[in-house]
Amino acid sequence: MVDTAPERATRHAAHGAVAMPSATDLYNIDSLLTDDERMVRDTVKKFVAGQVLPIIGEHFEAGTFPRELIPAIAELGLLGMHLEGYGCAGLNAVCYGLACQELEFGDSGLRSFVSVQGSLAMFPIYAYGSEEQKQHWLPKMAAGEVIGCFGLTEPDAGSNPSGMQTTARKDGDTYILNGTKMWITNGGFADIAVVWAKAEDGIRGFIVERGTPGFTTSDVHHKLSLRASVTSELHFADCRVPAANMLPNVRGLRGPLSCLDEARYGIAWGVNGAARACYESALDYSKTRVQFDRPIGGFQLTQRKLADIATELIKAQLLALQLGRLKDQGLAHPVQVSVAKRNNCRQALNTAREARSILGANGITLEYPISRHMNNLESVFTYEGTDDIHTLIIGQAITGLNAFA
Predict the structure, then answer these.
(1) Catalytic residue among 37, 102, 233, 384
(2) Are residues 222 and 271 in the same domain?
(3) pLDDT of 14 higher than 60
(4) Which of 134, 260, 262, 275 is most exposed by smallest CB count within 10 Å?
(5) Residue 68 annotated as catalytic
(6) How confident is the model at residue 4 (pLDDT cuts 50, 70, 90)?
(7) Residue 106's domain spans which residues?
(8) Number of domains in the chain
(9) Do residue 391 and residue 267 come from a single domain?
(10) Looking at the structure, do residues 104 and 175 belong to the same domain, yes or no?
(11) How large is the average pLDDT for residues 366-384?
């Protein structure tokens, strides 16, 4: 018996019509979330709509970070939200990812602030610190009373962190740090820096407090990307740090690289928020911008662009969600993090460029979010492991052959 299209339509009608899915959730990914996960997402979404979007364009243009938002971010429980105890919310990985997604819908700089605080500054203390260090720092950091940064990258050691030149020499009950760290988010106003340096027994992490003699910072200016974010250099000149400030429970690159995996996970979610912002802006514009006596959304080329964007966004969201589920089960592997970070950053950047083309010249102004996101995504594409590095990580996992050297 031939199953014809009219017969299939009749059967579908008999069982009730299926509603047309939302243009911003074509695959009903919302149904894959728990009630708690949706609540976290919607709470952060409301915060971004009410407090971030009205001001973020001005901060981007001025090159300033909206520090006035920190108390509200802390009040929402977003700082170290995926950590247990010590004043942290203890939410699951998917909740953390959804929060990153909604924050980056606002701006990558805002998500970067939260990622650095929770995944790069709080996480190493949580995972590798002494109980005294945890009790002293983590509650204050979760409350936004102490801001942290993460010092790994150096002017001559980016993709190859083992080439770092910053040293830590033991001297009695102190360590003396010398060196420079580069491209440090939050560095210019952070109260503490988690700094990685070469000691006699390998690479070690240190909690360095602002005001410690020999520790200074300088901000990077004239940026064309991540303008609503503070990016700095950290300088250490015979900076004497108490031995009690060393993270005692990790040695070698495993420490900082595990922190980067935490941050990369948040990025894999976050960039989907930036992509969605660009998609929604382009979609709305295509319905109201009239050329040749009709909305440009009615032209085939525009619909092709929107269809491609929507499809890639679905794929990226599902990739992030599966990674989150694996992480919550304790099954996520760093290679899987690399797959998601690489793919989702690529697609978000492509989405921003395609969406900008729909807006034409209007797309380059701050009246719309697209070029702001596009510029930001150029940095996100690079930091926490460049696209090339993640390509080699995946390639090595597939072939078993190391192409790094």
Answers:
(1) 384
(2) no
(3) no
(4) 134
(5) no
(6) low
(7) 29-142
(8) 3
(9) yes
(10) no
(11) 96
Q: What is the pLDDT of residues 284-328, one digit of tens each?
A: 999 999 999 999 999 999 999 999 999 999 999 999 999 999 999
Q: Is residue 75 part of a domain?
A: yes
pTM: 0.93
What's the per-residue H, E or C state across the chain? CCCCHHHHHHHHHHCCCCCCCECCECCCHHHHCCHHHHHHHHHHHHHHHHHHHHHHHHHHHHCCCCHHHHHHHHHCCCCCCCCCCCCCCCCCHHHHHHHHHHHHHHCHHHHHHHHHHHHHHHHHHHHHCCHHHHHHHHHHHHCCCCCEEEECCECCECCCHHHCCCEEEEECCEEEEEEEEEEEECCCCCCEEEEEEEECCEEEEEEEECCCCCEEEEECCCCCCCCCCCEEEEEEEEEEEEHHHECCCCCCCHHHHHHHHHHHHHHHHHHHHHHHHHHHHHHHHHHHCEECCEEHHHCHHHHHHHHHHHHHHHHHHHHHHHHHHHHHCCCCCHHHHHHHHHHHHHHHHHHHHHHHHHHHHHHHCCCCCHHHHHHHHHHHCCCCCCHHHHHHHHHHHHHCCCCCC
For residue 268, give the CATH number of its domain: 1.20.140.10
